[in-house]
Amino acid sequence: MAVNYPKIGNKVVAKVIGMQGDCTIGMKQGDEFELSLHRCGDFCGFFYHNIMGWIKTLQFGGSFPLSDDPDVIVWECPNPANRVKVELRRVKE
């Protein structure tokens, strides 16, 4: 079945920018994923659950009060044994 994701709001890209240990699903530094409220694709569901609110903020034009860049936030994986760090970036199209 072909899946068609509607374009709603801004594009959000998660890029793996650091790692401590090995990701349990095999994500590697430099990997990129397009994420949205509709799309989680091959991204880790455990990690997605923790950052979904931030994805929604970026997708729909919100900002982060303590951030130097309103279009970027960095998060670490909730797995304490294998810390994967991702940068979430809003891409305005």
Describe the structure.
This protein is α+β, with helices and mostly antiparallel strands. It has one domain. The protein is 16% helix and 30% strand. It has one helix and four strands. A hairpin with a 6-residue loop joins strand 3 and strand 4. The protein is globular and about 35 Å long. The termini are far apart.
Descriptive keywords:
alpha+beta, 93 residues, 4-stranded antiparallel beta sheet
Concise account of the structure shown:
By secondary structure, the protein is α+β, with helices and mostly antiparallel strands. 16% of the residues lie in helices and 30% in strands. It has one domain.
Which helices and strands, and how do they pair?
Blueprint: E1 11-20, E2 32-35, H1 45-59, E3 72-76, E4 83-91
Antiparallel strand pairs: 1-2, 1-4, 3-4
